[in-house]
Amino acid sequence: MTSPKVAETKGNGLPEKLVYEFGDGRAEGSTGMRDLLGGKGAGLAEMSNLGLPVPPGFTITTDVCTAYYDLDSSYPENLKEQVLSGIQHVEAVTGAKFGDPDNPLLVSVRSGARVSMPGMMDTVLNFGLNDITVEGLAERSNDPRFAYDSYRRFISMYGDVVLNIRQEAGLERDPFELLLEQKKEALGISEDPDLPVEALKELVSAFKSEISEKLNVIFPTDPWEQLWSAIGAVFASWNSERAVIYRELNGFSNDWGTAVNVQAMVFGNLGDDCATGVAFTRNPKTGERAIFGEFLTNAQGEDIVAGVRTPQPISKFGSKEGEVSLEDVQPKVFNELLDASDLLESHFKDMQDIEFTVQQNKLWVLQTRNGKRTGPAMVNVAVDLVDQGMITEAEALLRQDPEQISELLHPILDPDAPRKVIATGLPASPGAAVGKVVFTAKEASEWMERGEEVILVRTETSPEDIQGMLAAKGILTARGGMTSHAAVVARGWGKPCIAGCGSLVIDSTEGTVNILDNSSVQTLKRGDVISIDGSTGEVMLGAVPLVDSVLPETFERMMVWADRDRRLGIRANADTPEDAELAREFGAEGIGLCRTEHMFFGDDRILAVRRMILAGDESSRREALEEILPVQRQDFLGILRAMAGLPVTIRLLDPPLHEFLPQGEEEIKRVSDALTVSPDVVLQRITQLHEFNPMLGHRGVRLAVTYPEIYEVQTQAIIEAACILVDEGVDARPEIMIPLVGMPQELEQIRDLVVNTAEAVIAKKGVKVAYSVGTMIELPRACVVADQIAEHAEFFSFGTNDLTQTTLGVSRDDAGRFLPEYVRKEVLEADPFVTLDTQGVGQLMEIAVERGRSVKPAIKLGICGEHGGDPKSIDFGHNLGLDYVSCSPYRVLIARLAAAQAALR
Amino acid sequence: MTSPKVAETKGNGLPEKLVYEFGDGRAEGSTGMRDLLGGKGAGLAEMSNLGLPVPPGFTITTDVCTAYYDLDSSYPENLKEQVLSGIQHVEAVTGAKFGDPDNPLLVSVRSGARVSMPGMMDTVLNFGLNDITVEGLAERSNDPRFAYDSYRRFISMYGDVVLNIRQEAGLERDPFELLLEQKKEALGISEDPDLPVEALKELVSAFKSEISEKLNVIFPTDPWEQLWSAIGAVFASWNSERAVIYRELNGFSNDWGTAVNVQAMVFGNLGDDCATGVAFTRNPKTGERAIFGEFLTNAQGEDIVAGVRTPQPISKFGSKEGEVSLEDVQPKVFNELLDASDLLESHFKDMQDIEFTVQQNKLWVLQTRNGKRTGPAMVNVAVDLVDQGMITEAEALLRQDPEQISELLHPILDPDAPRKVIATGLPASPGAAVGKVVFTAKEASEWMERGEEVILVRTETSPEDIQGMLAAKGILTARGGMTSHAAVVARGWGKPCIAGCGSLVIDSTEGTVNILDNSSVQTLKRGDVISIDGSTGEVMLGAVPLVDSVLPETFERMMVWADRDRRLGIRANADTPEDAELAREFGAEGIGLCRTEHMFFGDDRILAVRRMILAGDESSRREALEEILPVQRQDFLGILRAMAGLPVTIRLLDPPLHEFLPQGEEEIKRVSDALTVSPDVVLQRITQLHEFNPMLGHRGVRLAVTYPEIYEVQTQAIIEAACILVDEGVDARPEIMIPLVGMPQELEQIRDLVVNTAEAVIAKKGVKVAYSVGTMIELPRACVVADQIAEHAEFFSFGTNDLTQTTLGVSRDDAGRFLPEYVRKEVLEADPFVTLDTQGVGQLMEIAVERGRSVKPAIKLGICGEHGGDPKSIDFGHNLGLDYVSCSPYRVLIARLAAAQAALR
Question: What is the reported pTM?
């Protein structure tokens, strides 16, 4: 027996007990000792304590890892005897002996910190094998091929993981894989299982030579030496570069250390009385309570993953014609598994995903964890557990992944159908759609009218495309991020959208789209059928079958709990009466953002809008605005009526005027004809209004400083609409919002204009209207001078989209070119247009809240950017003390849930 | 005698003395009593104390104004007797009597707060006139026309200013002017002086009727009633809307109040022994010490302003053939004026601008103030005063207007030459130029080569235009603000530039530029001659003569004092060895910003740059970069050599790559030929790289995250150049700067890349190079996470241009459309791209400095935006505790001066 390097002391403050045993229906540790035993070790201990058949083993504590570093990479003196005692415990339970030629004990070694952490040492199986014990294994299993296959796998894993041969010897690829390939080639064999035992023996020998040649060390035949090397390798991997970076990024401490788990091997591939499988305590698609899962006879766990053989169902219940279940072939094992399943779910109080192996009719439970599930199952399981008294309503709420709620709202692609993914973009709006490719909004409308289902494929979309976007089943763009025009509009409608799909190059005149790959180009034509999955960003060729979703009734119950527990108000962003009604159905408590510019694009008014923009002086502008006034009033009538009794925040005109002008020669001609002006006049105005950076241009309140009459007429339309409604007995509550304020003087001047206009209308109509005037906070400057701005505002609404753009200096329309890489390279944790950048943007918001409230403690505060529907951002908003968040109607349910979670945390 | 409304108390804490007399060679007040007597009153008192012949009068203190408001618009009880006593004092000195039919005393009434303030009551002259006293005046002056002209002027001023007739009666225009015009029309007279006395009498009567008709009040015939109304009107004007807004904007207190000055009238138009004029104690163009000015015989002050008659010089010295000086015609008065001039300059210790009137051979000094002067005079006067021991060096420095220093550096338009201004833009780069209009950079170069002087007129410029901009005498753009490409480049070169001249519409293919006016269009063709004044923004048709400027030797002396007193270091922004040398000549202590992208545009490398951009993978990119490497190294060799011993901050590539690609079909064809690729490939890449908001796009450090090899090769070029120089014994000190950092991780990753590359070069060359690595702080996010960023930076350089763009959400290239209006409407105090927005951007900078220093107290801090050359921004930088500012070479002198002033303040 080889001895490890041992220090003369046991290290500072190190407790006596360094090793915790488990197995045989009991354990020294438990689930509460996660910090000491790591997640895996604590789980194995807990299962043992529950009396479940866990292969016996022991855990070396995380304390030892810390001591190992303190002691300059040597072990504390009393570790050796405790490890020895651990192995003896395993030997006693299994009856096998470590290194015994006849009945050798084989063990696995795994790392396990308190949290799962990439970069640490992987699993190594089959410690204990050498040229002698392999023969014993062959004899006892009566399967020499199995024994030598296990042996050659062990050597290669050991060489790869423990000895780290590729890096140490500077090899480009795994040398063992190479030898294996050469052997198969020489024998004309294509699959590993076809290798005869002789070939395996030759490989064992070749592998050992490779190790001694490349690393100048001899593969250890002493099982103890093998084991101690592995323990050292686990500890060393704690400080691997990748693990260190991961901890740094996640703020995890280097002092935590990792535990080491040593556990007896069990085999599901020793004959037909053996099996391996995965079981769920419930159906993960529906949440229905009944054991669910699959298994393979005479197989190893990796065979299930590889998918070479078709697994069979565990339970008779729900199995198809011709399938043979575990219940059929091994009823005793099945019943044991059923008991284990019940025990584990009631113990862990959640649906479990259990790995098990059957060795010669004996069930072994290897692992259990909370099972992944669909959205409906997530809700059903939680509510069912509440009904069973196993968890509280608050626990049920906190267990929901709000993002998964969208699976309850949109049709999804049949998870079992094959997919041929041809491109991937950003998952901009959830749900799936199938349709024929069209390239213009006009085509989309025309094809839809003749009964076709289409996907609108564009480089990017603009407000002009609205009709076509509405006509399409789904939208796919080559440019733009999660808050690009296409993404925002689609989410608002609950329509699937993939944005920023960079590999598309669209030629809309030719009617083709080229999909670039590193090596090839695939061309789609107008009319080709594609499927898009807005939840994953995948584009598929052809029609993938769709599955409808329905809201389970359990969901209604859960939302009652959520509404009771949340503090944040939830509003919706809606620009039309239809959207407003939808939002109200989803439970919105008001409109947080009603954009007036979308209204400007309607067919009945765009001409007047354009006439206004082309007007050379104020009086012609006013004339054009007089035409727009009644139409706008009608818009506001509809929205205010739909939200009777609830506040409606209406943002006055925000985008730069050039967005409303026509593009392209033909369109310009058409518009100039309609307006009876020369195309040159239109063109000249387009040129004059062109901006290099429209995001930072002449828009928002700046428009009103230059052309006060625009906001004047909009205010008139709002207040006139409110007066009409109040007269009818409808409780209209408009909140007028002025966008893009950076200087207190802007707001002061324009607020005066708005209030004077409103008061004039009210005085004329003789009706009392409760309205308020506030501003968006969407520029860094507005945040730092929020105290001065608050003097002129009754509410602040954080426009977190623009605030993110300006704070980070990132255009959301262009960011697709580098932001994904930023997230991949971990420069950013998440797309800041999806999840609020709390470190940057969030700090400015904190400044704004603090300064705004210092002047006006009761000022109403909300978020109306896209972040208003993002759970993490909602959590931030809750902690910031905001009054409400506002999001797309389709995210109102998610936001209600997330707000409750934030309050419960 | 009519009594004013008097309160029964004298008001809280009001002192006994409310009226201060002056005149007759003495005064009760003095220059130190500005707060009590207002600026004008204190000045009149001071001149009286000096024994100068000031028309006698008295000042009602600002205390009275405050009391007037406290007492609900009535006067304190003891004011009446003090005003009476003041009038008696004036009567005693002049011998005339207020209201006396034979020898009537006439007085003027003027407001006067401690600072000059628009919106307050203007001067009203000739109080004391009525139907009776006017006859006395006619008799004594022996000039009835003069008397009635004075009378009708008095009534109209009184009606206008004291009674405020236009506003009170809601009139569109001045009713008295209207009557005057009608009278002239009826008599067929075109000029006022041609009106006969009878007509003036009729006007007097008509004016009085107008007042009673329109206002229902009778024009007061009692001089005392006239006087008290005027005093009340002055006090009321203190709270006029305009004055209140002005105080609010400037942070002046409403409690200051205004004083009222009542002063005897003197007349320069009572005959040929009368005169009026303006005298400077020195030549305001050169600063030369000799009385300088002009006068008109038998005239009023306004006649000089009107310019109907040609004024004559005061002194024989310097007068031209045929001119008759005051010295010639009234030598005694001239000598008195000379004495007064000497006295005033030595008393006020600065060049004075003196208004005087001669009434019947008697000199009266009416006002003195510090005289306006040219840049050279400003310097010469201050140094001369130091030499005379009248002021200290610090005082001399503080008196300089740093902006005026640019007048010493650039040719200016002859101030005496006529100008026909056809358009006005932003004064983007000072100095003047004359040349023929060309529309493309190519034309500019070609025309220059054949000996023509040209002005490059473009919608905007881009880095591609550099050669043409260099060839042109001046640059004129239709778009862009004070920090647009054209403006920044031109200032760097000291070349005149007007930017954002919005009325220009350029058709470069037609070769014309249309200048739009409200009513008309003027068309200039290619080759037409224009003159531009980059200091005023004026564009003139034809050639206006130029005057060269030279640095006076006094300036050198002043800069020695400045350098001794300042704490801030001054560096320059320079991209070429020539600029670096120029900057060094101007006294720059290093390069604060060397932009590497300008280097990418040279003819010898742009092709390689484009090949790099078109490259599909890293290895082809590296190939192209290998071509660029030696050329870049050569650039850095030149700059580092020119700045030997001084730090040179080199910014790695910043602009988005599409800026380097060709534009227009022809150019694309040319480039694709040169690169032997298809034009489609170039076009596709251009389309792919297009950005909606390039300012917020894929640029700065983001380029390096995507294409690390670019920064790698740039670093290699810098460090190799430094190694070569150090080897030669030249002290090269590169500071490598990474732009557009917003996230600490960006800097951490890219800093590693830079340091590893640098160390590899240094190890290879075996030479010791002292280099440092830092970052620009130019995003709001960088400011709030400056503590984390500081961990990876040896210096911060505030990129205040971009920080202003992102903090305010304003694109400097587009801002021309609304920023001027913002400044006009006082939403902003100044163009934030010229003078740092201390309230917004400044607060973020304070946060950055505080957080950066909290982690790294010794971190080096500077500004390298355009603000580095702006005096107010330099003052802010000094107070913020920065180490240096960096500006265009041509502004280094200004910055040195401004830094000294900041330190002295």
Answer: 0.80
